[in-house]
Specification:
The complex is a heterodimer of chains A (318) and B (407).
Chain A: H1 10-15, H2 32-41, E1 47-51, H3 55-60, E2 71-73, H4 80-97, E3 108-114, H5 115-120, H6 123-132, E4 137-142, E5 168-169, E6 172-173, H7 182-188, E7 193-197, H8 202-214, E8 219-224, H9 228-232, H10 238-247, E9 254-257, E10 261-264, H11 274-279, H12 293-316
Parallel strand pairs in A: 1-2, 1-3, 3-4, 4-8, 7-8
Antiparallel strand pairs in A: 5-6, 7-9, 9-10
Helix pairs in contact in A: 4-6
Chain B: E1 11-14, H1 16-26, E2 31-34, H2 41-52, E3 59-62, H3 66-79, E4 83-87, H4 89-104, E5 110-115, H5 129-133, E6 140-143, H6 147-161, E7 170-175, E8 184-187, H7 191-198, E9 215-216, H8 225-238, H9 240-255, E10 262-265, E11 272-276, H10 280-293, E12 298-303, E13 305-307, H11 311-317, E14 323-328, H12 338-347, E15 355-361, H13 370-386, E16 394-397, E17 405-406
Parallel strand pairs in B: 2-3, 2-4, 4-5, 5-7, 6-7, 11-12, 11-14, 14-15, 15-16
Antiparallel strand pairs in B: 1-8, 6-13, 10-12, 16-17
Classes of the chains: A alpha/beta (318), B alpha/beta (407).
Amino acid sequence: MSEIKKIKNLKEFSTSADRFEGANLLCPGCAHSIIVREVLNATNDDLVLSASTGCLEVCTAVYPYTSWDASWIHIGFENGSTAVAGAEAMYKALGNKGRLKQPDRNPKFVSFAGDGASYDIGFQWISGCFERGHNMMHVVLDNEVYANTGGQRSSSTPIGSSATTSPAGRVSYGEKKNKKDMMAIMAAHGSPYVAQVSPNKWKNMVKAIQHGMAVEGPVFINAVSACTTEWKFAPEDTMALQDLATDSLVFPLYEIIDGTELNITYRPKNVVPVEEYLAAQGRFKHLFKDEYKYLIKEWQERVDAKWDYLQRREEAKV
Amino acid sequence: MAFDKMELRETEVWDGNFAAAQALRQAQVDVVAAYPITPSTPIVEGYAKFLADGYVEGEFVMVESEHAAMSGCIGAAAAGGRVATATSSQGFALMVETLYQASGMRLPIVLNVVNRALAAPLNVNGDHSDMYLGRDSGWIQLDAYSPQEAYDLNFIAFKVSEDHDVRLPAMVHQDGFMTSHTAQGVKTIDDDTAYGFIGDFKPMNDMLDFDHPVTHGVQTEEDWHFEHKARQHNDLMTKVMPKIQTAFDDFEKLTGRKYNIVESYDMDDADVTVVCMGTSVETAREVAKEMRAKGIKAGVVGIRVFRPFPFEEIKAAFKNVKAIAVLDRSAPGGTPGAMFNEIAGALYNTDERALLSGYIYGLGGRDLTKAHLVDLYTELQANVDAGKVTTPLQQFIGVRGPKLAFL
């Protein structure tokens, strides 16, 4: 068994051995790199990583450069999870045959993918990996939009967001559909651990990642990733946006163990109105017109209802 | 942690699928990621059963689509071990994106393709549409005409594909049902000898070597993409054929069974010849023999290595021939046919250009009969006698309705 890495404080955490280089092409203020570093720094174990096509992939492995000081693979948009699953199958096969070069290691198999590559185009591949029970972790960098192709809606895009394929316009308030509940879907796969995390709550996040890496089987992590380009806020405000996301409960932080035990892992001391979260982002700007203000009210009601639901599940231990 | 060897008789009665499955067992494939599709399914079922019975050690990953099958194979191959799978037709079509990714990432993978028509209309029988769909994918493509060859060519495929000078994935093709489900006598190789021919898998840039992290599947744009693709093509054009030839030579020494990059039959003094692939080659050989009894000097050329395409060997094979019929078993989609075009291209700059005509046949498993081939050779002889192609350039064999001919 691998030891769980002990992390004392943020300074130590942020300066621990870094297998994801700061040299990359992600936008200034992109939360992806913060999330990736928090995942990688949560463990000292060896890593076999994948990235599905998307911002993270195109910005970190442009030949002849790489930002990855760990085994890493990218195949396509939809199949990053299966790439890692294939590697994990080979690890098992070579382990059984006594052919591993470093048999004493305890590698962790982690796939990173955006919400488009997870909720939409890669959904079947992830579902297959989870049903088969590969010992791996799939981390969604959830910025609620196809950012790499320029801001098209995905099934993670929330109601009222203006995306390039569901733009707000003279007679439209933008996206009409509610965000897909991937946490529930992945928990229903029988995953031993699913968790929603946010890099601003780094202790919470590290705990979730370490829990996920310690259990056997496929683990699903939905990481909220504020996108300065598509959410339309200033790059220096990324952490403020992440705070608004978690403290407004638009992104409640919770975990589901073995598909049945739901725990809320972060309770904001002061819950921020959803309106403040929306107001901080250009993608929701049009909602503040008089004719669409009812949508802000509905947003708040949805968030309240979800929070209420999560609390009831936690209390009932289901 | 161990597996049992299997005692094989010198000659077993196997169909093409089981022959391929036995080869995967003897190669001791580490990971098979697969999805079922007719008519290739028994190959991976065979591996799964060998695994269940303790005759092979490895991981069988039954995935949720052919796209995922090749994706899993790519991940497994990049991790560093022996990888194989099988598919046909629609499954192959679904894999296409990943086929390019596998070859572009220079990963050794052996894919058994049991050839089958492509929908629509849906059809489960053999033609070469799927084989042709893979022709620009950067894979090595070997074609078996019988269960024996499906067995033997798998060993060749592993040996060439895993060679560190090659590092390209390889397909072994066989005809759906005609080969895959037709049991014939197959001369076997014992387990140790078969494994010894391929040897242990030698990893390179393996993701499971944690002391040497590698980045696989990078982005290249206009600054590097062309060089990567050109280098891959260069290796296909210059390195692969000599390796295949060496593997064929070594295999002959081991088993006495001789394979050639282009399989010429009675070509030394042939005036007229048919060139084709798959089970049709054997039919054509029989008919050619009969035509010789009638005074027509007939020969047959079978393409054994479809990719890289054997330009030099084609030129040599057709050096003294007067008329050639190229048989394409794939819907041509508005052109004379892929193999016709390639052979025409190979011969265009030669001094003695034979009369060339093309035939589309056998789509969706339609039989190519001996009678068809008798007519064809007779037509070729008429071309020779007239000193020109007397028929339209492209004709259809064995299709009902008004005669179809073009160009």
